[in-house]
Design a protein that fits this description.
flagellum, Pnp Oxidase, Chain A, elongated, six-stranded antiparallel barrel, alpha+beta, disordered N terminus, single chain, cilium, cell projection, 15 strands, Thrombin, subunit H
Amino acid sequence: MVSKQKSMKFYGSKEGYDADVMIDSKAMLSKDDFVSTGVLTYALGDIIEVELPEYDVFALGDKCKMTVYTPSGLFVMETTILAKDKGSVIVLNPPDNRRKFTEKREFPRVDVKNEGLLFGFQDKSKKHEHQFETPIRFSIRNISVNGLGFKIEENAMLEKIIQKHSQLEVELILGFLVPCTLEIVREEKMNNGTYYGARFILIPDEKTNALRGFILKNQIETYFVQKRENETKKALEKKSAAIQ
C-alpha cells in the first residue's frame, strides 16, 4: 500500500516547522495534463487530506505532484492517492517531507481491535527467560509504527513478572501474523487486567511493509469516521441554533 516516493523540493529558510503550518494552505495536485487546486485540511504522520472540487478525477494509486503554498514556504512533493471521500482525497505524506516538520507524536497511534499471543518473556535484568507452555492471548488497543498498547486480562502471575523494560516474545494477529519482540515502557492497572505500553524491538524485515500498510489503512478509516461524526455534530448544532 505504501510505495517509495521519489523526490521532494523545499523552498524555505529552515527545517523543523510545526506540521500545522500546512493546515488551511492552498494545495495544487497535478497528474498527466490535469491540475486541480484545493485546500490542505489535515496532515498527520503518513497522510495528508486535500479538499478539492475535482476529487473524482483522481483514482486510487494515481501518482501525483503536489504543491503546497504555506506562510512558511513552498513545498513540492511527489505523492500517491491513497483514499477518496466526497470532496477530498487522502495522499501519502512522503518521508522526506515529514522530516521537514515536527509533530506532537512522531508516529501517530490508531485504535484497533485485534489480538496477539504472548509466547515468552525476558525480565528487565536480561538474566531470566521463560517460555509459556500455552501462549497467553492479549487484546491490542492501539498501534503505531514504533509500538503498541495492549491489555492482558487479570493474571496475578504475569503482573508480578512482567515489569517495565521486560522484553516479550509475541505474535500479532492483524489479518496476517507478525512475530516480534516488544519492550514494556509503561503499565497501568485496570479493573479486570493490566494495560501495557510497549515499543517494538525487533520485527522481521518482510513484515515491516505489511505492518505499515495495516496502520495506514486504519488511520485513514479512523479519520474518515471521525470526520463524518464531526460533520454530523456541526449540522445538528446548526439546526438546533436555527430553531432557537
